[in-house]
């Protein structure tokens, strides 16, 4: 349980909120790179309570500007993206990716008026198939994030993207909460005797070596947040072995958790404003490229097929008004436990159903909530110290080699420490190849 003050402190992300100030010190994913074509349609982006426009200019350079035209405020999302800038439809002002006003056509020919005007333009970096933005003050920009999955080529990556109509914290809490997987995802995560790690099955579900719904949660702090183990009794050899899954929370919005064999997983929960979050689920294949058919299976399993389950702006067709289109008939027939198809959709529906900003003065946390309790404590401590005396935010005090963070799962002897499976060596040659 949190106090009202603590809940507000954690949840609010606007420019004047303490958490908003701290989150602006990190690189955050703003949009997927492939959504922006050179001289193509500008895209509306919300980030930390600010309304922005993203576009790729004629040279391929991405700009991330205030959505509002610096002349008199018309939306630049409606603008023409041409000849190295975005031209406002209203009076033809043109703004480049750096936020410079390069043309003001209605002004006298000898006017230098535009040259003195600059609009908000945030620094961006492209890596891992994303445009990342830095919205903090100049001079405090950390190095861009290099995860294992950002090093892989686009052909090997699937990006699942869906907007959750709720606060970012409740979406992040979903991924550091192993216990819910036995219930909410029971249709798609199937305890299977004889497997030693999570495997994709032909029917689109996952087989894993345990169906134990009472995982023991143990947490250990790291310089970037923490790692935690969910420890379960396996279906085979339960007296001599335990099934351990390790998930890493990486401040402020990231989690790496064990993937099915041959894949790397990451989830990112980008606060758009106080009541909306972009949920990204990235999977990287460590082997072959991911072909169109496999891509379709990943999207179907997530429940995020465009046109069928989400619209072009990544909103779910399910929402609070239509009771998330829950299929009670499928529940009655036994075809579905939840009446909601798709792992990601199931998560987002639960999180939206908690309300736009969940009131954590009302909750009752148990032993299985240990990891999210730790996350809140670390983030509260960090935001309080950052606000009080400028202490660097969690994970930014020292350089961190994010590419070495791996999420493991394994069956190990019951008396072995769970940390013994957390091998720090890179599991692939991807990172080395990328750095050469
Ligand atoms: S409002 Fe954009 S050019 Fe006038
Ligand atoms: Fe989940």
N/C terminus separation: 48 Å
Q: Which band does the percent of strand residues land in?
A: 25-35%
Q: How would you describe the shape? A: globular
- Largest sheet, if any? 8 strands, antiparallel
What is the chains' assembly state? single chain
Bound molecules: FE2/S2 (inorganic) cluster, fe (ii) ion
Averaging pLDDT over every residue, what do you get?
95
- CATH architecture label name of the largest domain: Alpha-Beta Complex
Give the number of domains: 2
- For the record, what CATH class of the largest domain applies? Alpha Beta
Low-confidence stretches: none
The CATH homologous superfamily of the largest domain is termed: Naphthalene 1,2-dioxygenase Alpha Subunit, Chain A, domain 1
Q: Strand tally, please?
A: 21
The helix/strand series, from N terminus to C terminus, equals HHEEEEEEEEEEHEHEEEEEEEEEHHHHEH
Indicate the percent of residues in helices. Answer: 10-25%
Secondary-structure map:
Elements: H1 4-11, H2 18-23, E1 27-32, E2 43-47, E3 50-56, E4 62-66, E5 80-81, E6 86-87, E7 94-95, E8 101-103, E9 124-127, E10 130-134, H3 148-151, E11 157-164, H4 168-175, E12 189-191, E13 199-200, E14 206-208, E15 216-222, E16 225-232, E17 241-250, E18 254-256, E19 263-273, E20 276-285, H5 292-302, H6 328-333, H7 343-353, H8 370-389, E21 409-413, H9 430-435
Parallel strand pairs: 12-14
Antiparallel strand pairs: 1-10, 2-3, 3-4, 5-6, 6-7, 7-8, 9-10, 11-20, 13-14, 15-16, 16-17, 17-18, 17-21, 18-19, 19-20
Bound molecules: FE2/S2 (inorganic) cluster and fe (ii) ion.
